[in-house]
Design brief:
Elements (H helix, E strand, L loop, with lengths): L1 H9 L3 H15 L20 H7 L4 E4 L1 H5 L6 H5 L5 E4 L2 E4 L7 E5 L2 E2 L14 E7 L13 E7 L7 E10 L5 E11 L4 E24 L4 E18 L2 E7 L2 E26 L9 E26 L3 E23 L5 E26 L3 E22 L2 E2 L9 E16 L5 E18 L4 E16 L7 E12 L3 H4 L25 E2 L8 E13 L5 E12 L2 E8 L9 E8 L2 E14 H4 L10 E14 L15 E10 L5 E10 L2 E4 L4 E5 L2 E11 L4 E10 L4 E7 L5 E7 L3 E9 L1
Parallel strand pairs: 4-7, 23-27
Antiparallel strand pairs: 1-6, 2-3, 4-5, 6-7, 8-9, 8-38, 9-10, 10-11, 10-12, 10-37, 11-13, 12-13, 13-14, 14-15, 15-16, 16-17, 17-18, 17-19, 19-20, 20-21, 21-22, 22-24, 24-25, 25-28, 26-27, 28-29, 29-30, 30-31, 31-34, 32-33, 33-36, 34-35, 35-38, 36-37
Length: 741
């Protein structure tokens, strides 16, 4: 409780921070560098993440090696869940409480490959993370919630040889992870880095469920286990060639592959069936086996040249491929163990893409840096999928039929970074982006084109030109285009209710079929962001921000009973994505971090090696076409609280720390008929690290302590029917050893 109280006090302490800042300002003031990106800058000391954040022309959070290495994580998702305003749910990155589709993920400024998971990337291969809450012109504006840009390791200035070996445990047996990084600068202006990582995972969750369906006539309760395990590897080599003083050529590769397995068993008991006849309890044992592979390969070539001291050109070209295949088997047995259902789903997809991009920048007068650029990307996707039940196609004429899609994205943009005065700076931008999707296949023929023009304005104001306070404001437009799966009109049926054959029958609202909508338009969002930031002399900071998004054309699943569908002779409940009229979301974002003595000088000695951090994010949203209460945007929790501390001992080379995340239970009214409850979440991560020598260090850590059951409950208005699913996560313990040659 003392820790929680201290972290809470952090968020209520701006007055203390400002008082301390006023004392230090006179002796620690330093001029702020210009926003002119083409200007040569001489760096006299290593800049911290906070220093770099303060110098950015737009609001951006930066996290470097210190944050990436702190807990010894082997998966990037574990790093991200501890950052302010970010949470990871079901493998999806969420910013500002919004679903994963609202957050743009880039790797070195390029869209992440299709099917890419944050768990595929070891933090040891990452140079830094850039989190941007409002879009900029030189990146795609498909970022209503924000953008995460993952910058892979660059070639070092000196020889680098690092070996990392780790052992982790969460289930029946420990798993290993390892990585080796070798980097060097050679003759002729060549530099390279070769980071290699291998990893395994092995998790087991206990699952519970309960369903009430058929108007309350059938009550089902289930219990079981879910065992997920697998292995993978990734490599991200980089070659830098310095052709001249201001001319460089860079070749960046990114390769990832993994093999995954998922085994589950579930016992379902029918506790109530027909009140007219009698109670007829019975149990059914189901088992599932899912296995597959994922791989992605990409090469990017970038050429940079600065000439005439005030002009710069950047050219990029890239090509990539990848794909996945899977085999999912479901075996249903009665209480005597006799197999009654054998259902198998197999599929594979292949993706290929190529990109071209270029931009040109130059000074315009004494205060402007003007940049113009364009991008072109072409992606193709080929996919096949087939589901059979007891050897018979589940949807004859649809299942097993291949389809392909081609997505062409083009964009042009212009921006101006304007140093108005010593107190004011501005960033103006305009981006026009077009996405054309063409698909062919049984049940999936469509042609969709979306065009979006996004004006952008970012302003920075320094109340004192020599001080550390900074006020930022942004007025932007962003958007979210429908993905291929949302556009394809090919149905996916709920297998609890057969759609064909002699047993065909109508399903229920809690077990709908799903189908895409080729007429979907992109969601458009007009956003306003404002923040006050103060940077403390010893490296700490306090930030208070607000944001507002007004979304039109919101995409939401509509649930309806359709009397005539192409895949069944019976009426079927169908969930289909549609464009609603509008929605709004707004929030308050508070962040405090720094040395304890700087934040609370009256409570801690100046030499206390304790760092504190805390963030509180409050969210609210409203969907106009859905009745309230709780007509929130999908998956957006009302608030999220993160807090943590790090301490370094003086007598021994030992440091330790913790980070905690808390979010409440909440309800989302998804449609006029359906709502969903999400359970509360909390988690604690902790680490202890010791430097054994100049070359060797060890780190012990645990992720996910004290997690309660996670899950959702779906309810139908006016009916007793509901669908509850829960799982109990298991903590992940690990030990890592690092050796620097």
């Amino acid at each position: 409780m003392k820790t929680t109280a201290l972290a809470s006090l952090l968020l209520l302490s701006p007055a203390l921070v400002l008082a301390q800042q006023e004392v230090d300002r006179a002796t620690n003031a330093a001029p702020t560098p210009s926003n002119q990106q083409l200007e040569r800058v001489s760096v006299t000391r290593q800049q911290t993440d906070t220093d770099l954040r303060r110098r950015e022309p737009v609001a951006k959070q930066l996290y470097g090696r210190e944050e990436l290495d702190k807990f010894g994580d082997s998966q990037l998702s574990d790093v991200l869940k501890r950052l302010p305003g970010i949470n990871v749910s079901g493998g999806q990155l969420r910013m500002r409480g919004l679903g994963g589709a609202y957050t743009q993920i880039l790797v070195n400024g390029e869209p992440a490959p299709p099917g890419f998971s944050l768990d595929n990337l070891n933090p040891a291969q990452v140079e830094r993370l850039e989190v941007t809450k409002a879009p900029t012109a030189d990146q795609s504006a498909q970022a209503i919630a924000g953008t995460l840009n993952i910058i892979l390791k660059d070639a070092p200035r000196i020889v680098q040889k690092d070996l990392r070996l780790g052992l982790a445990y969460a289930n029946e047996k420990p798993v290993i992870n390892g990585g080796f990084t070798y980097g060097n600068r050679t003759v002729g202006g060549l530099g390279f880095v070769l980071p290699v990582s291998v990893y395994q995972w092995d998790n087991r969750n206990h699952t519970d469920g309960e369903r009430l369906r058929d108007g309350g006539l059938t009550r089902l309760s289930s219990t079981g286990t879910d065992h997920s395990h697998g292995r993978g590897a990734n490599v991200s080599p980089r070659l830098n060639w310095k052709l001249g003083d201001d001319e460089t050529l860079t070749l960046q590769g990114f390769f990832v592959t993994n093999r995954f397995f998922n085994d589950g068993d579930n016992t379902t008991t029918e506790v109530f069936y027909d009140p007219v006849k009698s109670v007829r309890p019975r149990s059914v044992l189901d088992t599932t086996h899912n296995r597959g592979t994922f791989n992605a390969q990409r090469l990017n070539l970038q050429y940079n040249n600065r000439f005439d001291e005030d002009k710069r050109i950047e050219l990029r070209a890239g090509a990539g491929s990848g794909g996945a295949d899977f085999n999912f088997d479901f075996l249903g047995r009665d209480k005597n163990g006799v197999q009654t259902v054998a259902r198998s789903t197999t599929g594979e997809n292949r993706n290929r893409n190529a990109t071209l991009a270029g931009k040109y920048s130059q000074y315009a007068g004494e205060a402007h840096t003007v940049t113009v650029g364009s991008e072109l990307e072409r992606r193709t996707r080929d996919e096949t999928r087939r589901t059979t039940e007891n050897g018979v196609d589940l949807l004859p004429g649809i299942e097993g039929q291949p389809f392909d899609a081609t997505i062409t994205r083009s964009a042009v943009y212009a921006q101006d970074e304007w140093e108005i005065s010593k107190q004011w700076s501005a960033y103006f931008g305009m981006r026009h982006e077009q996405i054309k999707t063409v698909s062919a296949g049984v049940g999936s023929d469509f042609n969709s084109t979306s065009k979006v023009t996004t004006p952008l304005l970012h302003l920075n104001y320094k109340p004192d030109p020599k001080g550390r306070d900074l006020v930022r404001a942004s007025l932007t437009r962003s958007y979210k285009a429908a993905d291929v799966q949302q556009l394809i009109a090919r149905p996916t049926i709920n297998t609890d209710y057969p759609a064909t054959g002699l047993n065909a029958r109508t399903n229920t609202q809690t077990a709908p079929d799903r189908v895409g909508n080729p007429n979907l338009k992109p969601e458009l969002a007009t956003g306003l962001d404002a923040a006050w930031e103060t940077y403390l002399p010893a490296g700490g900071m306090v930030s208070v921000g607000v944001f507002h998004r007004r979304i039109t054309g919101l995409i939401r699943n509509a649930l309806a009973l359709e009397n005539s569908v192409s895949w069944s002779s019976q009426p079927r409940w169908v969930a289909k994505p549609i464009n609603l009229s509008k929605a709004t979301t707004e929030g308050l974002e508070l962040e405090v971090k720094g040395r304890a003595a700087e934040l609370f000088p009256s409570l801690f000695e100046p030499t206390t090696a304790l760092s504190l951090r805390a963030s509180l994010n409050l969210y609210r949203s409203h969907v106009a076409d859905i009745p309230g209460p709780d007509n929130r945007l999908e998956g957006q929790q009302p608030w999220q609280f993160n807090f943590g501390a790090d301490y370094r001992f003086k007598a021994v080379p030992l440091s330790m720390g913790f980070s905690a995340q808390i979010a409440p239970k909440f309800t989302v009214q998804q449609t006029a008929l359906q709502s969903q409850d999400s359970l509360a979440s909390r988690s604690l991560d902790a680490f202890a690290a010791m430097q054994l020598s100049k070359q060797d260090s060890v780190r012990l850590s645990v992720n996910g302590l004290f997690q309660p059951k996670q899950g959702t409950r779906v309810l139908i208005a006016g009916l007793p029917d509901y669908n509850l699913s829960e799982r109990k996560p298991v903590a992940w313990w690990s030990a890592n050893w690092e050796h620097k040659f």
